[in-house]
Each structure stands twice: as C-alpha cells, then as structure tokens.
Design a protein that fits this description.
The chain is mostly helical. The longest helix has 15 residues. The protein has 3 helices and no strands.
C-alpha cells in the first residue's frame, strides 16, 4: 500500500473532535488575527467559529 492510500485512510478515520481541533489549530498558525492571542475567544471571527465547532464536537454535539 502506498503512502497516499495510508494517508487517505487515516484522514477518514479521524475523530470529529480531533478534526475540529486540527482545523482550528491550523487556522491559528496561518491567520494574522488569531496568531499569538492568549485565548481562542480573542481571535478573529473565523477562529472563534472553529473553536466553537471544536467545543461542540468535544461534548458530542454536531458541527
């Protein structure tokens, strides 16, 4: 099995909570309005929405 198929299967098996956190984390590393803020609530609107989706996924809600 080549690396692309392994990567693909790993992504499909990713838990919703971990996916939501990864999306938020990647956003905060790239977005100037979110980079370096001490709390997620102090970031840009998109960052706050991603953090809200993570919190919902963490408690078992739908995102």
């Amino acid at each position: 099995m080549n690396e692309a198929k392994v990567e693909s299967r790993v992504r499909t098996a990713e838990l919703p909570m971990l996916r939501a956190y990864r999306l938020w984390f990647e956003h905060t590393r790239k977005r100037e309005g979110c980079k370096g803020v001490p709390k997620a609530q102090e970031g840009c609107e998109s960052g706050r929405e991603l953090w809200g989706a993570y919190r919902l996924a963490r408690v078992g809600g739908t995102s």
